[in-house]
Amino acid sequence: MIDVLYFAWVRERIGLPRERLETSAVTVADLITQLRAREERYAAAFADLSALRVALDQELSSFDAPLAGVREVAFFPPMTGG
Amino acid sequence: MIDVLYFAWVRERIGLPRERLETSAVTVADLITQLRAREERYAAAFADLSALRVALDQELSSFDAPLAGVREVAFFPPMTGG
Amino acid sequence: MKVAVQSAPFDLGAEVEAFTSGAEGAGAVVTFTGIVRPDEGLTAMDIEHYPGMTERAISGIVEEAVRRWSLADALVIHRYGSLKPGEAIMMVATAAPHRGDAFAAAEFLMDYLKSRAPFWKKESRDGGETWVAAKDADEEALKRW
Amino acid sequence: MKVAVQSAPFDLGAEVEAFTSGAEGAGAVVTFTGIVRPDEGLTAMDIEHYPGMTERAISGIVEEAVRRWSLADALVIHRYGSLKPGEAIMMVATAAPHRGDAFAAAEFLMDYLKSRAPFWKKESRDGGETWVAAKDADEEALKRW
């Protein structure tokens, strides 16, 4: 089981801030492929990966990173702090 | 008549903060030559021009600048503000 | 070192005063304050963040600044929630023996907070709401460090 | 725009607060505070200045900053007289729509105040008094502008 979090317009497009998933995905990219296949709102949120960032257990990561041992995955647009 | 002001160690070396002089000096350099000739303490203060700066009527200037029309000449070491 | 992520406003004057008088050995203190710019038509700025990761990310950025420059102290306060035009969003402060280190570290902290701390800004205008897009210039700014 | 040359201490928190809340249209405020660094053995720092020229020189430097960068406001306060270690000597503040202008203008003001405003510092130590020598690095720093 893995916690998947969504922020900003990713959260708005998918319609929820977080969910708990059972997944066999090996990498982040695999997980995205599975999410896209679920429903249109997921496909829309993950349409353009260049507009997305991912964090694994609260550390910025990349789409080809493995999910082994990861408990929390977060998807969000580029950050706009400061 | 011209007001001549001294600051920091120039003031300490010469022993006064300002004086009023009658001078026929055409440039700042001429004035310095006249001052050096007055007394040892002036010669000591003006020994190394690279360690001095000059302002004419409160604007930084150079040693070859003309004195015509100038009312206030100030000599001091490089500034250390901030 | 102080890192605060909060929805409440902060007292800028009191923070600057406390930071400066507490920074032992410092000869230079630089502060930066980010304000919701009162642009035409802007009614509110909503700031979303990622609780947990935000504190981690900011602490990591501050530790990196302390490694790179000779600092006596550093501080970051960043707000989230709904802010009005003219309100302070965040501040950083750096104290160092010399001014070069204080300025460089403050600019470094700002550049990294802009693009590496998990905050997202949404502007409300008469016409609706818009997520603020990240600027290429902000990502570019990281390359100088 | 505010330029103050004074022997009295200034209230850093109150100045930063007033400057920031008064800077209309600003999205970024940068402040720099210079402090008498409490170096080993230092008992006092005496600051001499050139009344009249000091105010002119600082105003000229501030006007140059306003010409070069997009600023909402700028402030310089510089003290003279006898200061103790840990006391604030001076501060600058800049307000701008964007952070790049606020940082650049504050650094420019500092670099110019260091070498072009007529102040001279004398350190008192147990062993006696020494005029602080101008640093080549401070003169060099002007070349980047």
Characteristic key phrases:
heterotetramer; A: 82 residues; alpha+beta; Ubiquitin-like (UB roll); five-stranded mixed sheet; globular; C: alpha+beta; Aldehyde Oxidoreductase, domain 3; four-stranded mixed sheet; 35% helix
What structural class results from the helix and strand content of chain C?
alpha+beta
Number of beta-strand segments of chain A: 5
Q: Give the largest interface.
A: C-D, 29 and 29 residues
Q: What is the CATH first-level class name of chain A?
A: Alpha Beta
How many E-type strands of chain C? 8
Structural notes for this entry:
The complex is a heterotetramer, with 2 copies of chain A (82 residues) and 2 copies of chain C (145 residues). The radius of gyration of chain A is 12 Å and the shape is globular. Chain A is 29% helix and 26% strand. Chain A has a single domain (2-76), classed as Beta-grasp domain (Ubiquitin-like (UB roll)). Chain A contains 3 helices and 5 strands, in the order E-H-E-H-H-E-E-E. Chain A is of the alpha+beta class and 82 residues long. Helix content of chain C is 35%, strand content 35%. Chain C is built from 4 helices and 8 strands. In chain C, strand 7 (119-125) and strand 8 form a beta hairpin. The mean pLDDT of chain C is 97. Strand 2 of chain C pairs antiparallel with strand 2 (28-35) of chain D.
Secondary structure layout plus pairing:
The complex is a heterotetramer, with two copies of chain A (82 residues) and two copies of chain C (145 residues).
Chain A: E1 2-6, H1 8-14, E2 18-21, H2 28-38, H3 40-45, E3 53-56, E4 59-61, E5 72-76
Chain C: E1 2-6, H1 12-22, E2 28-35, E3 42-49, H2 53-68, E4 73-79, E5 81-83, E6 88-96, H3 99-116, E7 119-125, E8 128-131, H4 136-141
Parallel strand pairs in C: 1-4
Antiparallel strand pairs in C: 2-6, 3-5, 3-7, 4-6, 7-8
Concise structural overview:
The complex is a heterotetramer, with two copies of chain A (82 residues) and two copies of chain C (145 residues). Chain A has 82 residues and is an alpha+beta fold.
